[in-house]
Every structure is written in C-alpha cells, then in structure tokens.
Amino acid sequence: MFQSFRMSMTWLHTWFGLVIGYVLMVCFFFGALSVFDREIDRWAIPETRFEPQVLPSFDKMLLPIFEKMEPLEEELDAARDRVGGPLPESKPVMGYSAYTTHRDPVLMMFSEYAITNNPDDPRDHVHGYITIDPRSGAQLSDEQLKIGSEFFYPLHYSLHLHWANLGYWIVGFAALVMLAALVSGVVMHRKIFREFFTFRPNKQAQRSALDLHNLTGVVALPFHFFFALTGLIVFASIYLPVGETMFEDVALKQAQEEAAATGLAFDPAGVPAPLASVDAMVVEAKRRWAARDMTGEVGFLAVNHIGDANSYVSIYRAGTDRVTLTGQGIHFKGSTGEIIREDPPPSAVEGVTDFMTGLHLQHFKHWMLRWLYVLGGLAGCVCIATGFIFFVEKRKRAHAKSGSSGARWADAVAVSTVTGIVIAAAGMLVGNRLLPTDLPDRGFWEESVFWLSWLAAFVHAAIRSAPVQQARISPAWREQCWAIAVLAVGAVVLNWITTGDHLLKTLGEAYWPVAGFDLALLAAAALAVFAARRLRLREIGAIEQRETSSGGAEAAHA
Amino acid sequence: MSASAPSLSPLHIALRIIGAVGGGWLFVWGFTTLGIALGIATGMPYDEARTLLYLLAFVVFLVAFCWSFVTASIARVWLVLAGGGAVMTGGAWLLLRSIA
C-alpha cells in the first residue's frame, strides 16, 4: 500500500484500530463481564440467590413441567412469517431438553414443537423456553431478565443486532481486525521487549498512553490473539455457512448415515411409544462416568422424538473438571431405557477444536483461572482505550492548528465506548434495583435503561469534547468517571436497601456471587474516582508542569 | 511511527478495504470449500473436514487481510483474493460434483 512495509502496517493498525476499536471495547468489556455472567444473574434476580443445584428428578418434577410448556410467542410470530399464513392448531412436541452448570442455581428448560405446514421446510419447528427453581419446580417469571447471561453475554458476540445476524458479522470482523492489529502492532514496534518493561505514568499523556498500550498489548498478546481467534472459530458456521449451502446435501447425508450407524434415529418412526424412566438412565450415565473416574453431574439432558418408538435420551456430563468442551454423551433408547451408545473419544481435529472453544467458553470450575480471564479481558480494554487516547493526543495539536474536528470526534466516541459502556452497564444495574418488581415487561425496561444511559453518555461526550479542538483534555472523561463512581456505589447501596444483602452479610455467609459482584462494583467506583482526580490534574496541567520542573526531556516539546 | 504516511485517494482506500474484506472473505470461502471437498475426496468424514478447515480458515483470512494492505498493487489484491477465491470455489464445486 505504501512504500514501506512498516508504514502500511501502521496505517492498518491506526485506522482499523480506531474505527473497529469502538466495537472491540464492547466485545472485551462485556466479554470480561460474561466470565461471571451467572453471578451477575444472581445479583440481578434476588430470588435466585441460593446455591447451585444438580439436575432434579426428571420423572417426578421435570416431565410434568415440560408437558405444560408452550412455544414462545415471538417464535410463533416468526414461524407465521416463514409459513406465510396461520399455523396449524396442533403443534406436535418433538423434543425436551434441560441445561444447567456448576454455577447455576436455576435450571433452563427447552422444548421443541413441529410446524407441519411449511412446504419449504418439512423440519420447521419452534421452541419453548422457561427457567425454574429446581428445588420446588416453580417457574421464574419471564419478565425477569438474566442481565449477565441473557444481556451482557450475548452483547459481547452479537451486539443484540439480530437482523440478518448483523451483530455477529460486525463482531466477527472486529475479531479479525483485532488479530490484524496484534500482528501489525508487533511489526510496528521493534523494541517490543524493552517496551514490555516501560511505563512512565507521569510523562505527557501521549507517552504514558503509548507505554500502557504497548504494555497491555504485549503482556496479554497470547490471550488477546487466542480469544479473537477462538471467538471466530466458535461462530465459524455463521461466517462460513458451508453446511447450509454448497455442502447441504453432503451434511444431510452424513447426518443420516451417522444416525443409521449410531442408532440415534434421525427421524421419528411414526409409531407411538411411552417414555421409560429417565431418572434410571441418569443413574446409569453417572455410574458409567464414575467408572471412568470422572465427576458425574449432568450438564445437559435431551429427549428426542418425544412419544415415538425412535425416541432416545442423550445425557451429557457437565465438564467442570477440564478446559476442553466435554460431553461424554451417553444415549438411551427412550421407550426401554437400554443403552444405545456412548460417545467415542473425539478425533484429533475435534479434540483441538473442543479445547480451543472450551478455553473460550470456560465451563470448567477453576475460580483463579476465571479471574485471570477477567483481568485478560480488562487488559484488552486498557489496550484499546489507550490506543484511542494515543490517537487523539498525537493529533489534537495539529488538528487544533488546522481547525479540524477529527480528533474531537474520535475522542467523543472514545469517551462513550470507554467510560460510556461502564455507565450504561452500571445504570442498568441501578435500573434493575429501582424498577418495580411487578412491572410488566421489566426486562425490556432494563434494556432500555442500558441503551438510553449509553446514548446519554455519547451525547454528553459529544457536547463536552469541544476543548479537544483547542488541544486540551475533554472534561467528559473526568465527568463520566464520576458518573461511574456514583452509579456503581449506588448499585451496591440499592442492592442492600432492596434485598437486605449488604456486604457484611454476603461476606459473612461467603455468598460470593453477590459479595464478589458488590466488591467488583466498589473497586470500579474506587478506580473511577482515582482516574477522575488524575484527570483533573491533567486538565489543569499539574502533571505536565511537575514533569517539566523535574527536567523531563520529552516534556520540552509537549 | 513518526513518518507521516503519504496521502491516498479515497477511491484507492475504498478499493483496498473492499478488496481486503470482501476479497479476503471470498478467498477464505474458496479455501474452506475446496479444503472440505478435498478432505471428502480423500476419505475424510464431512464433519471432520469442516472442523479442520474452520480451524485454519481465520488464520488464512488474517494473512490475506494483512497482505492486502502490504502489497503494492490493488489489482493484485483483487486478482489474488477475489479471483483466487472464485477459482477455488469453482474447483470445490466441480470436485464435489464428481464425487457425489
């Protein structure tokens, strides 16, 4: 592109880093929060603050609940659009499944119903979905949004833009740019090892920001590279949908052949048959895992072809004891409970993929590794944010002279994607505690609080960023830091007032999902206050002056 | 870092970016489909071949993407990425037809 290799790479790093960095902030920040998504769920839904539960009795508790489940309204609407008219009165049930993890007190239940009048797709179907308290079987209200696992977590890979999977594509492209930014970043910096040990917090902002950018970029480079790459691999079938296009026939043929070979029927037989005791199958599955010396709690259980002679039950192990995605699925004949098959060990290729995606999805039980993930994600945020600051600091004097507003707008968007997303998240938590518990469609209002807080942060950043055009620091950074501090402390206090679970109580009971999240909020508030005070010093020039008076050579051309 | 880049026309930049992103995707699509077809042709199960190619696809995309900004000629970016992608996709399609 340019004469020199390094210059081309620098261009790539600068411009893609800036524009896509705004998206990457969302991926990294909410990805870091997703490490503790289940714990955030507990914080947000106080009636689920109890210990994680194992799968309850299928025969006694789950089956009667499954039988009462209904398809989701929004899925029926979508099916009407696909069919282009009304749906048949009867929607035969196809399958039931239940999912839990070692961090979930609640149990998620899914059901599947056939849509029989779609001429384009004979396998068309819709789903039902509920969450229950597995101690009593009581259904949790649909109005309760699981803020961690249903909002922050999908935000980090889909941006909640579902039209044509647009959000997935944007995030996928951002992941590619992240990889390219890491490669080009290494190319740009020859003295990478020395930069590793360099951080000069009292130098001018441009120098300090670059130091921190290099330090976080280099120190967490393998982490960042791996997460961007595995994120792409997880959703590879969206980005490269070979199975639905060129290889559709091959994929269908293989699935059918596999079904014939494994005895796990691809289609129902059309002959009614009762379902044997699933509890007995669970006991047998656990016995077989124990025989292989594996911790044997059920993570996922699925009953396929309900009420049919071809019905089979698949029971998968919750993979808490290793990084790789595990299943060790054991499959039973639904009508008799006899074993059909045990999944063989994965092939080498599947093993690598399972390990890589497992490392990203972290189903394992290892709290220190979990915290390292959070730190890695936040290091990514620091790396991207300091990249923004460096971009602005490097240009703002020249832009101030030439009258360009480029640096100002880059700065305003940076403020709204750095401090702004924290405000949106903390605002949502405050909203979660303040909105009336019986408010219809409460989850919608919680989401609205998030988006409106974010919008407000952007408007504020845009209005307050005028000083950047005079080569000064936008006060929006400092003001939004104060907003974060107020909202984060407010969330902790409101949690105390509305639920009675103050920190002394949760710490005393060692109830870490809530205690840990409260502490994290307080730490965020403390960091925000520290940052706000430092920013104030920067704004009035105290830090640069101190540096000049101590004889800093580089400050001379500040 | 310090040397300022010579300015490029917006058209050049647009063609470069579209070539890198769109052309890069087409190249990776061709690479993936041809790889899977070759895998099937040599006796690999489809699932296994697909999983293997998914592991490689984004590394190939990364190299293609970076290369499109380093190489001198835009025509070469388009020829190699879009052209190469189309050729590989065609190859995959022909191969698939001959073995199916």
UniProtKB/TrEMBL annotation, chain A:
Transmembrane segments: 12-36, 166-188, 209-240, 371-392, 412-430, 450-468, 480-498, 510-532
Coiled-coil region list: none
Organism: Povalibacter uvarum
InterPro entries named in the record: PepSY-ass_TM (IPR005625)
Protein name per Swiss-Prot or TrEMBL: Putative iron-regulated membrane protein
Keyword set, alphabetical order: Membrane, Transmembrane, Transmembrane helix
TrEMBL record, chain B:
Annotated GO MF terms: acyltransferase activity
Full protein name: Apolipoprotein N-acyltransferase
Residues that span the membrane, as ranges: 13-40, 52-70, 76-96
Keywords (A to Z) from UniProt: Acyltransferase, Lipoprotein, Membrane, Transferase, Transmembrane, Transmembrane helix
